[in-house]
Design goal:
336 residues; mainly alpha; Methane Monooxygenase Hydroxylase, Chain G, domain 1; 3 domains; 13 helices; 74% helix; elongated; Translin_N; RNA-binding; Translin_C; DNA-binding
Length: 336
């Protein structure tokens, strides 16, 4: 029977290699009978042994070792990672609280300065108004010194904890250190941005009341005790503070005219005109600073209207720079 089965299989293989067409239906119908008769049925012990061999890899010692030894290190590394995250978030939170505590004191000091400078709109003597406001400059200088010290300590802890920075020497180390300090300060800059802008506007207003000129960026840093190499006054904060100063000028002009100071509109108009022309040199983005700069033109327009009314009523004082060559030279008039 086995010989007949082998002959049938060889016949089918030979015929398929010569002619790829399927075998005759008679041979196909005989194949199940031949295979059933040729292959004996497996014994129950063989089937049981086969089932055990099939299921054995799931419970093998290698599988148990991979489950016990593979998941435990992964879980430990995951816990360590999130433990580090927790420590970093707590440190960042405590640092932000320290910064906000100092910023709250800065805001309180600026409110005192602002309330003192508001008296200038009520025709109070200017030296008396400035004396009360100037008394808070030293307080602000001390607060910004504390803020710089907090940032200096925290950045020192951070870049000292970075191991790879110790591998670098001289200029490369200081470059990495400087870059890290800049990025670190920019991360928390939003906590004192608004307070600094208000401080710049008040200092600029006081400086203009004293000198009639603009407070420069370096002068503002000097008044606050800031160092450009470590903790400097941000340029956008300085420019935004100047825009706040511009918003205060129209009210000051109106109150000064009501007090009988008819020359004030001309001074403020010249100042805002120069400041607006200087701002137009900047390519500002469409952000908060650009919006504040757009409001400056409305402040300038209001001051121009007040000055125009003064000129119509012949109350404004004449200035030699406003003649623009329209006045005649007395020597020319007397010339025969």
């Amino acid at each position: 029977m086995k010989a007949a089965f082998r002959n049938a299989v060889s016949f089918i293989t030979h015929s398929r290699s010569i002619n790829p067409s399927p075998p005759p239906p008679v041979v196909v119908s005989l194949l199940p009978l031949i295979s059933i008769a040729a292959v004996p049925s497996p014994s129950p012990s063989l089937l049981r042994h086969t089932r055990l061999e099939t299921l054995r890899p799931l419970s093998s010692p290698l599988r148990r070792y991979s489950m016990a030894g593979g998941e435990a290190p992964a879980s430990a590394s995951l816990d360590k990672q999130f433990e580090d995250f927790r420590v970093q978030l707590e440190e960042n939170g405590s640092l932000r609280e320290r910064i906000r505590a100092i910023v709250m004191e800065i805001e309180s000091t600026t409110r005192i300065m602002h309330s003192s400078l508001l008296l200038v709109h009520q025709s109070r003597p200017l030296p008396e108004v400035l004396e009360k406001a100037k008394a808070q400059i030293d307080v602000l200088k001390g607060l910004y010194s504390r803020l710089a010290e907090v940032l200096r300590e925290c950045t020192g802890e951070y870049y000292r904890s970075v191991a790879f920075l110790r591998k670098y020497r001289c200029i490369r180390f200081f470059l990495y250190k400087l870059l890290f300090v800049v990025v670190f300060i920019l991360r928390y800059h939003g906590d004192w941005r608004s307070a600094t802008q208000t401080v710049v506007s008040l200092l600029s207003f006081m400086h203009w009341l004293e000198t009639g000129s603009l407070l420069m960026h370096a002068e503002a840093e000097e008044k606050l005790g800031l160092n450009s190499a470590e903790f400097a006054l941000d340029i956008e904060d300085y420019l935004t503070g100047l825009c706040f100063l511009s918003n205060e000028m129209p009210r000051y002009v109106v109150n000064r005219v009501l007090a009988g100071d008819y020359d004030c509109p001309r001074k403020v108009l010249n100042f805002l005109t120069d400041l607006n022309a200087a701002f137009r040199m900047l390519n500002l983005r469409n952000d908060f600073l650009r919006k504040k700069f757009d409001s400056m033109k409305y402040d300038l327009k209001r001051v121009e209207e007040v000055y125009y009314d003064m000129k119509i009523r012949r109350l404004a004082s004449e200035d030699s720079t406003e003649n623009h060559g329209t006045e005649k030279d007395p020597a020319v008039e007397n010339k025969p």
